[in-house]
Amino acid sequence: MTQIVDPVPNDTPGAREIQFSVPQHYNASAILFDNLAAGRGGKVAVVTERESLTYAEICAQACRIGNGLLDLGLTRGDRLVLVLNDSPDYIAAIFGALRAGLVPLLINTLSPADQIAFFLEDSAATVALTHGEHLGLFSQSSPKHLIALDSDEGKAWISKQSPDLPQADTSRDDMAFWMYSSGSTGKPKGVVHLHHDMAYTVESYAKRVLQIQESDICFSVPKIFFAYGFGNSVTFPFAAGATTALLPDRPTPERMFALIKTCRPTLFFALPTVYTALIKHPSAATADLSSVRLCISAAEVLSGDVFTAWKSRFGHEIMEGLGSTEVLHIYLSNTLDQKKLGSAGKRVPGYELKLTDRDGQSVGPGEEGILWIRGDSDAPCYWNRPDKTAETMRGDWIWTGDRFVVDQDGFYFFRGRADDLIKVSGQWVYPLEVELCLNEHPKVTECTVLGLTLADGRTTLVAAVAPGPGITGDDALSSELKDYVKTTLLPYKYPRQFLYLDTLPKTGTDKIDRQACKRLFNEMEA
């Protein structure tokens, strides 16, 4: 048995070290199936606005899908592509594949057809499971078996299989599942995770930060294909014998408030852009969030005005954290007891952090450095990408490429990417600094700040802005925002151009789509 111990003393008073064992022979499907042995077969595991499934029912569905995949000729270690909405089918497909010793790839349902073709080719997957509405995404690819689980044929394929499936004799260090991380440029990278990684995030974050209980109901706006959403909707609730509430379609404010009303979640996971959209929506005035005991935000920096507005309306403080696909979930987090607004929080127990300069030399509190992470949920590699693996997975550390400052109390403050420094009028500017400044202006709902290359080769700073309700995006507002940045920061750091939109474009994980904003600016320049 391999014992995993918190690598350094935790800096949160009273916190315990992580001490738990994962057997050498271990299969991650135990996170779901152990609930049967614990006597929770009749407890509701998954709930949507239209249906609910008990632990016994979702386990039986997982076994049927796992048996069906083996019937198609897949053998241990084979990959399969999952392009599915958040649904009981998706959860059953994930755990059925894991239990059978197969490796599911969790794919963004907003991926274009050519990217789906790349995923299939890159992974050598011959099987794809999807929902009928996404069949068009396979127009440029021809997997040997393409099954829409919600079709009559898909339902028949599942129903004829046995509801019993012995657990594959996998190792704790065998490949379990992949997620693709695209980054800003180049081909997407297959992030490989192992069978014990899910258990490690439970011990480190779910138990010690969320303090999740069997009585909890989790609702995650970020989808299951997103590492943040995967932990929130799949790993954490099932490890605790709790319930997960799923929203299959795109999360509009109306749909999110409706699900909260129907399913009464106790844990609510979102991103700053989602909190912004919800608090600005008319339904916020009457929405009832009294069932929620904890609101969590990650993936982007949470601004002070959103935090304050949310607390003022609903009475909840938003607990901010930071994680990554490579580490699988959150490794920095505030707590309700220990927090600093604007920080990503303190080190989560079980992870070791260090800040270095570009030469790899350690920097101290108050000094800016690049963040490195070490913990037992770290991905060992990117699939078939030795160049990117060597760049990011350095020994047993993950080099994040993110710049941070840590204060004397152990709180980490994000300062942007190591490679996003922009020279404007001969002076270096970090776009994130300007972005945070603009987000504090009362007439700005959300924004992103970018470097734009002009036709003559010069680089200028631009901002895409969604003004607040009733605010007109015009020259007068641009002048006001420029003056605000000049006086709040330094004169040369102001954006030279503004693009006003009702809402900023979002990625499939509900982050602001900076590349889409950049394309809009380029179209303006053309």
Protein topology:
Layout: E1 2-5, E2 19-22, H1 30-37, E3 44-47, E4 52-54, H2 55-71, E5 79-83, H3 88-99, E6 103-106, H4 113-123, E7 127-130, E8 145-148, H5 152-159, E9 175-181, E10 189-194, H6 197-210, E11 217-220, H7 227-239, E12 243-245, H8 253-263, E13 267-270, H9 272-280, E14 294-297, H10 304-314, E15 318-323, E16 330-333, E17 346-347, E18 352-356, E19 368-374, E20 382-383, H11 386-392, E21 393-394, E22 397-406, E23 412-417, E24 422-424, E25 427-429, H12 431-439, E26 444-453, E27 459-467, H13 475-488, E28 497-500, H14 514-525
Parallel strand pairs: 3-12, 5-6, 5-7, 6-9, 7-8, 11-12, 11-13, 13-14, 14-15, 27-28
Antiparallel strand pairs: 1-2, 3-4, 9-10, 10-20, 15-16, 16-17, 18-19, 19-22, 21-22, 22-23, 24-25, 26-27
Describe this structure in words.
- The chain has 526 residues and is an alpha/beta fold.
- The protein folds into 2 domains: 391 residues, 3-Layer(aba) Sandwich (Rossmann fold); 106 residues, GMP Synthetase, Chain A, domain 3.
- Helix content is 30%, strand content 25%.
- It contains 14 helices and 28 strands.
- The strands form 6 sheets. Strands 4-3-12-11-13-14-15-16-17 form a 9-stranded mixed beta sheet, with helices on both faces.
- β13, α9 and β14 form a beta-alpha-beta unit.
- α2 packs across α3, α6 crosses α7 and α9 crosses α10.
- The radius of gyration is 23 Å and the shape is globular.
How much helicity do the residues have?
25-40%
What Rg is obtained from the alpha carbons, in whole angstroms?
Answer: 23 Å
- Mean pLDDT, to the nearest integer, reads 91
Relative strand content: 25-35%
Structural class by secondary-structure content: alpha/beta
Judging from the principal axes of the Cα atoms, what is the shape? globular
Q: Biggest sheet, in brief?
A: 9 strands, mixed
CATH architecture of the largest domain: 3-Layer(aba) Sandwich
In CATH terms, what is the fold-level topology of the largest domain?
A: Rossmann fold
- CATH classification, class level of the largest domain: Alpha Beta
CATH superfamily annotation of the largest domain? ANL, N-terminal domain
Catalogue the unreliable spans: 1-5, 9-16
Count of discrete domains = 2
Taking the alpha carbons of the first and last residues, their distance comes to 62 Å
Strand order, largest beta sheet: 4-3-12-11-13-14-15-16-17
